[in-house]
C-alpha cells in the first residue's frame, strides 16, 4: 500500500523535468495516487504532455491560472472523472524577468499586479474552484514558497512581495476551509535550479551561500521537497494546516 493509495491529486506548475511540481507528481504516482496535471500554455504542453504520459497521469489539461474559465473547465473535468479531489498542488509563479534584477524601486504597476495575480491570487482562485471537490474528501492544498517572502534577498524583488502574500493567503485560506476539513499548507523550498530560476541573476551566489551556512551544509533536491509534499498530502499530516514548512537544509534558522 502506498501513502496515497486511493487518493486523487491534481498538480499545477509542471514546466519540465526539473520542476518541483514534476518531482511531486512522480512521488504521488509512486505512492499510489491517481494524477491530473495541467500545463500553462502550448509551449509548455510539448514538455508536459509526454512527462504526464510517462507516469500514467489520468488527466492532462490546459490551465492558464489567470483565466477563470480555464479554472472552471479543469475542475468540471475533474468532477466528471473523479467526483472529488484529495490533493491540490499549486507550484506556480511568474514575474517579469526585468523586475527580478536591480532595484525593487523599478517595479512597475503592471509587473506588480502580474506577479501577484499569477503567484499569489491563483492559489485563492484554485482553492475556490476546487473547494466543492476537496470538501467531499477532506482534501489537502499545498503551495510552494521561498524564504524571499519573509526576508529580503537581492533580485527576488516583486516575487518576495508575492510570496509574502501567498504565505498569508495560506493562513487565511486555512481558516476559511478548515471547518470543511480541508487543510492548506506551504512548503518553503531552498534554492533549486528549475526552468523558472534559469537565467535569473544571483541564483548561484545564493545557492553557494546556503551550501556554506545552512545547518546541513548543502542544497536540497526536488525529491526532498516531494517528500514533504507526500507528508502534507497524506493522512500523516491530518492535524497540520496553515503551516509554512521549510525544506531548506535548515538555512532559515541561521542569523
Ligand atoms: C533570489 C533568487 C534569485 C532571483 C529571483 C528569481 C525568481 C524566480 C521566480 C520567478 C517565478 C521566475 C520567473 O517568473 C521567470 C520568468 O520571467 C521567465 N521564465 C519563464 O517564463 C519560464 C519559461 C517559465 C517556466 O517560468 C515561469 N515562472 O512560468 C531566488 C532563488 C535563489 C530561488 C528561486 C528560484 C525562487 C523561486 O521562487 O523560484
Strand content: 5-15%
Compute the CA-based radius of gyration.
17 Å
Q: Which percent range fits the helix content?
A: 40-55%
For the biggest β-sheet, the strand order reads 3-2-1-4-5-6-7
Terminal-residue CA separation: 42 Å
Biggest sheet details: 7 strands, parallel
CATH architecture: 3-Layer(aba) Sandwich
Taken from the alpha-carbon principal axes, the silhouette is globular
The tally of beta strands, per DSSP, is: 7
Structure, explained:
The protein is an alpha/beta fold and 255 residues long. It has one domain: NAD(P)-binding Rossmann-like Domain (Rossmann fold, 3-Layer(aba) Sandwich), CATH 3.40.50. Helices cover 43% and strands 14% of the residues. It is built from seven helices and seven strands. The chain has helices at 20-30, 42-54, 68-82, 109-135, 157-177, 203-213, 222-233, and strands spanning 8-12, 34-39, 59-62, 87-90, 140-145, 183-189, 244-247. It has a seven-stranded parallel β-sheet with strand order 3-2-1-4-5-6-7, sandwiched between helices. Strand 2, helix 2 (42-54) and strand 3 (59-62) form a beta-alpha-beta unit. Helix 1 packs across helix 7 (222-233) and helix 4 (109-135) runs parallel beside helix 5 (157-177). The radius of gyration is 17 Å and the shape is globular. The mean pLDDT is 98. The site of ligand N5H has 21 residues, from helix 6.
Question: Features of this protein?
Answer:
255 residues, alpha/beta, Rossmann fold, 7 helices, binds ligand N5H
Amino acid at each position: 500500500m502506498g501513502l496515497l493509495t486511493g487518493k486523487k491529486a491534481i498538480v499545477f506548475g509542471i514546466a519540465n523535468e526539473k520542476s518541483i511540481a514534476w518531482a511531486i507528481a512522480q512521488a504521488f504516482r509512486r505512492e499510489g495516487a491517481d494524477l491530473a496535471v495541467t500545463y500553462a500554455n502550448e509551449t509548455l504542453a510539448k514538455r508536459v504532455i509526454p512527462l504526464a504520459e510517462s507516469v500514467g497521469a489520468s488527466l492532462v489539461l490546459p490551465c492558464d491560472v489567470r483565466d477563470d474559465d480555464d479554472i472552471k473547465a479543469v475542475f468540471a473535468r475533474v468532477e466528471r472523472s473523479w467526483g472529488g479531489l484529495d490533493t491540490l498542488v499549486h507550484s506556480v509563479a511568474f514575474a517579469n524577468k526585468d523586475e527580478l534584477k536591480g532595484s525593487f524601486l523599478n517595479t512597475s504597476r503592471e509587473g506588480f499586479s502580474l506577479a501577484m495575480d499569477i503567484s499569489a491570487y491563483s492559489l485563492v482562485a484554485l482553492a475556490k474552484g476546487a473547494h466543492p471537490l476537496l470538501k467531499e474528501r477532506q482534501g489537502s492544498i499545498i503551495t510552494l514558497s521561498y524564504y524571499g517572502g519573509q526576508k529580503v534577498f537581492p533580485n527576488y524583488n516583486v516575487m518576495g512581495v508575492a510570496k509574502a502574500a501567498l504565505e498569508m493567503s495560506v493562513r487565511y485560506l486555512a481558516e476559511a476551509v478548515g471547518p470543511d476539513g480541508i487543510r492548506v499548507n506551504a512548503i518553503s523550498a531552498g534554492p533549486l535550479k528549475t526552468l523558472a530560476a534559469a537565467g535569473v541573476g544571483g541564483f548561484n551566489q545564493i545557492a553557494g551561500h546556503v551550501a556554506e551556512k545552512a545547518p546541513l551544509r548543502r542544497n536540497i533536491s526536488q525529491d526532498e521537497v516531494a517528500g514533504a509534499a507526500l507528508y502534507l498530502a497524506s493522512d500523516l499530516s491530518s492535524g497540520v494546516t496553515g503551516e509554512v514548512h521549510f525544506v531548506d537544509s535548515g538555512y532559515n534558522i541561521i542569523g
